[in-house]
Design brief:
five-stranded parallel β-sheet, mainly alpha, about 725 residues, Rossmann fold, 4 domains
């Protein structure tokens, strides 16, 4: 489960869409015609994926070689200077590796022996080391007598350095091969070694038909060269002829990688222990901002993978996941939390009265711990701590409405419970990234309701509205002005049905839930339920483009009014009162009936949930009469079946197999109309020649329904239920 933080080595592992660039650059290196030595630089900061990008380029070079003749294939030397210590060792090993690589490819080199001899003499001049005995060129009489050559140093050959290099360049320039030398991790070297590598490339190793591909952190290299009295910026520009910046990994890409990596840990979370909405609060408003690059994710996942399996049955998974991020990235804050149990839990609140003086002292202590943070903005860290430790709200946000019960915290195994706090530190060793500017502009439009509504519609048309919701559902909500909240809520309720539904799984939310979270947060900006009620009422009245999102929102509001222990909230903590909720339900029924009268309701993809609301909140007989009327039409009966059998249809589109469990989905229809009243109409549609012109989901809806009802037809239906 642990990750050694290796770079990727093949394009199938690429999650940052860099393969295309790597292919183009690799092909450009191969297509180079000029025999002059050429230097390409890839520069970027720590953890941006420079080595991974080099590996993608090497993969493409090797692939290209598979379609070339041997005498045309590039000769590739992958040299890592970090493997050698000291300037002399680094220089000597570079040339030794170059010689070894050329000898490996000697069969396809023209005049290979001459090239190797000249290179060895060249190496000897620079390193003041003798030519290895096995590589010394023998004269004809030495071959006959099997005597070793007595020439061991370059200066004994009678050739000067200039002559040797000129002859070597002439021979290399006549080759069809391109020698591509890849040097990674340059910025990890000592200052003098960095200087030596660039000098080697510029003067000692600038051979004909040679291309250098370098990888380095430009800021570190410039700083190193400046430190030894060299203008680092100018020095690099003299050596590197073509430079590419490897950009930092985008926040959206990091989150995709994070989701992939955390799934392995999430898979071992005990059943029913994961609170998706709580995770969304923690992740989207604070945790996501801890990760700056892939190495951060690796460090976090490794720490989480080590600790969580050992205490998973006694901790809240979301709390532990969040605390691990604090441990990895702000360890001083982590230790501050661990060592101040009374500050972060209700441990002593029953003993000492939490008066203004006590709160002031607690704030000084908490501010000191927050001051240890050097990783992320303090307001983001504070937002996370407020989620994990509700007691801090009395210190930092005393007027904010928030419900917390110690009994619930204990039951949910929360870290804020004094009884469970220490468990989270059981493995602790006790010792003495939608552009910010664009989002800002978007929110400024909320000063005019119509402008914001239009801008939201444009985002949806451009397939960017989910990215906007993703960015908004977090710290950016804090920046929304109170006077703009009503316009934003109105726009979401009016447009919500038009947005893509998104995915709902362990680590993500679908669009309706995301919209509800935003609406709920904005409503909480208003202290009185009457204000919140008026905002929702006005939004429902004004909504003309959506109806399902209204039903969804009111169902979510209902959760605050249920008597179940897990979801129950005291009246003063709810968005609206029970009477106000009932009033909004009745208003929604009038909107549903308006949709029904214009024919729009029958075409809605969320027909069943809307009908359920009509049935529960309005006149049941009116609802059933509407259903009876629409199923008389071909479009109406197909629409009803598609929505009711949505999950079976999705499964059948992949594998059309027997599944008796699908029968339960028919119950969604039976509450509105007797199933036998649909049989003959569905059978007629199936047996009609027009059936073949229906869309796949429409065909499957009819076939699955008829098969589940065991209706005899003149056409054969593939069996999907057990006999």
């Amino acid at each position: 489960m642990f990750d050694a933080d290796h770079p990727i080595i093949k394009s199938s592992e690429d999650r940052l869409n860099r393969t295309t660039f790597a292919k183009y650059l690799a092909r450009s290196l191969l297509d180079q015609i000029d025999a002059e030595s050429f230097v390409v630089g890839l520069h970027g900061g720590y953890g941006v994926g420079k080595t991974s990008l080099l590996n993608l380029i090497i993969e493409e070079l090797n692939f290209a070689a598979s379609n070339m003749y041997d005498d045309e294939k590039a000769i590739i030397l992958n040299f890592n200077p970090w493997n050698y210590s000291g300037q002399d060792q680094l220089l000597y090993q570079f040339f030794r590796r170059l010689s070894s690589t050329l000898r490996t490819n000697a069969a396809s080199l023209e005049q290979a022996d001459d090239i190797i001899e000249l290179l060895e003499l060249y190496i000897s001049y620079f390193t003041q080391k003798p030519v290895p005995a096995a590589l010394r060129r023998k004269k004809w009489w030495q071959k006959l007598t099997n005597k070793p050559s007595e020439t061991s140093y370059a200066w004994e050959s009678g050739k000067d350095l200039t002559t040797i290099k000129l002859a070597l360049n002439n021979l290399l320039g006549e080759q069809k091969h391109r020698i591509i030398i890849i040097i990674d991790n340059i910025s990890r070297l000592y200052d003098e070694e960095i200087k030596l590598v660039f000098q080697l490339i510029k003067s000692m190793g600038n051979f004909s038909n040679t291309t250098y591909l370098l990888s380095y952190d430009k800021d570190q290299v410039v700083h190193a060269l400046d430190h030894i009295d060299i203008d680092g910026e100018a020095f690099i520009e003299k050596v590197v002829q073509l430079a590419f910046e490897v950009p930092p990994i985008l926040q959206q890409d990091l989150e995709t990688i994070f989701a992939d990596r955390i799934n392995a840990v999430a898979d071992i979370v005990p059943e029913d222990a994961w609170d998706k909405e709580y995770w969304a609060d923690v992740y989207y408003q604070s945790l996501r901002y801890f990760f700056e690059n892939c190495r951060d994710i690796t460090r976090y996942i490794n720490t989480l993978s080590f600790g969580y399996p050992r205490i998973r049955d006694v901790v809240n998974p979301v709390d532990y996941f969040a605390l691990t991020a604090i441990e990895v990235f702000t360890p001083d804050v982590y230790f501050g939390i661990r060592d101040n149990k009374d500050l972060f839990t209700d441990l002593l609140d029953d003993v000492y009265h939490l008066d203004e003086k006590k709160l002031k002292k607690d704030k000084l202590r908490c501010d000191e711990i927050l001051g240890r943070n050097q990783r992320i903005p303090n307001e983001i860290l504070l937002e996370l701590l407020l989620r994990l430790f509700p007691r801090l709200r009395s210190i930092y946000r005393p007027g904010e409405i928030f419900y917390h019960a110690e009994s619930r915290a204990r039951k949910q195994k929360r870290i804020c419970s004094p009884d469970l706090f220490d468990v989270y530190f059981r493995l602790s060793i006790h010792s003495a990234r939608f552009h910010e500017s664009e989002l800002k502009t978007m929110l400024e439009l909320a000063s005019d309701a119509e402008s914001f509504d239009q801008a939201l519609a444009r985002l949806n048309q451009d397939d960017r509205v989910l990215a906007f919701l993703d960015q908004l559902d977090g710290r950016h909500l804090l920046n929304i002005k109170k006077e703009h909240a009503s316009a934003i809520i109105n726009a979401f309720i009016d447009n919500g049905d038009l947005f893509p539904q998104g995915n709902s799984d362990l680590l993500s939310l679908d669009t309706p839930m995301r919209i509800h979270r935003i609406i709920h947060y904005l409503l909480q900006r208003f202290p009185h339920s009457d204000e919140r009620f008026e905002i929702l009422q006005r939004s429902i009245v004004n909504a003309t483009k959506s109806i399902y999102i209204i039903v969804y929102e009111l169902n979510e509001q209902l959760r605050e009014h249920t008597e179940e222990e897990e979801t129950y909230l005291p009246l003063e903590y709810r968005d609206i009162t029970p009477m106000q909720l009932e009033s909004l339900r009745k208003l929604t029924v009038t909107r549903i009936k308006a949709w029904a009268s214009t024919g729009r309701l029958a075409e809605h993809p969320k027909l069943i949930p809307i009908l359920n609301a009509w049935l529960d909140w309005g006149d049941k007989e009116e609802c059933r009469q509407f259903v009876a009327k629409i199923v008389e039409t071909d479009r109406g009966i197909v629409a009803l079946l598609i929505d009711a059998l949505d999950q079976p249809i999705t499964e059948a589109m992949e594998v059309y197999h027997k599944n008796p469990a699908w029968r339960a989905y028919l119950n969604r229809i039976e509450q509105f109309i007797s199933l036998d009243k649909l049989e003959q109409h569905a059978k007629a549609l199936f047996e009609d020649g027009y059936f073949e012109k229906l869309r796949e989901r429409e065909q499957l809806a009819l076939m699955i329904f008829l098969d589940l009802m065991k209706v005899k037809t003149t056409k054969i239906i593939p069996q999907t239920t057990a006999d």
